[in-house]
Amino acid sequence: MRGWLKATIGLVVLSGVLVGADRIAVGVAEDEAAEQLLKTGRMSQRPDVSIEGFPFLTQVVSMKLDEVRISADGLTVGDGSHQVALRSFKAELAGVAVSDGMTSATVDSGTGSGLISYADLSQLLPPASELVPNASRLSLGGGSRLTLSYGGPGKIKASLGPFPVGEGSVRSQGNTVTVEGFRLTSMAAVLAGLSNPTLDPMSFTLSSLPAGLNLAAVTPLEEGLRLSFDGKGVKLIG
Questions:
Q1: Please, which residues have CB within 8 angstroms of residue 35's CB and are 6 or more apart in sequence?
Q2: pLDDT per residue over 58-81, tens digit each?
Q3: 117, 227 in Cβ contact below 8 A?
Q4: Engineering a disulfide at 197: which of 64, 186, 189, 193 sits with its beta carbon 3.0 to 4.6 angstroms away?
């Protein structure tokens, strides 16, 4: 009985040592992955990285991680000329094949999401001078932009200076976002000397999206425009 007890205690101690070593190893790998993501430009700031699954060391042997979760707040995205904040970014990456030293990583599939405020979204849309040919007649400065807010499911409400332009819809195709359907009030159209009060569709294309993912969908919410991302065979690092 005493021999059995000693063996059991020894196994428990050994198991604890192995679990501790596994957790230390995964922590080191998470730090290295976060650093590499920043260095390679896949993220505009150092993210939090969580490698899921246990044990971690068996995944290292196979050189493929079951699931990796990435999160960051205050990332930036843009269209090449304007950069805006992407808040509350989160991504789940499945089947991450890694090289020794975490110098390269390829993802089988991944999904993610983030949020752009309506104030920042307006910075990616054209100024008043491009939306309305005679914007000066409406006492709008050349740098004036649409003021945006939530307009209900699938809708964005907007105004141009003191003039409401109603509700418009937003959609995406590839990494291009299009906002359309806004109309000047009759009075504003008359003041601007326009026969057609409908504003032309406005589009911008996002580049260098986080974690190498692509834009999948856009959804208006109370707090801003939610961007949904996905990707297959994504080059995450390297």
A1: 46
A2: 777 777 888 999 999 989 999 988
A3: no
A4: 189
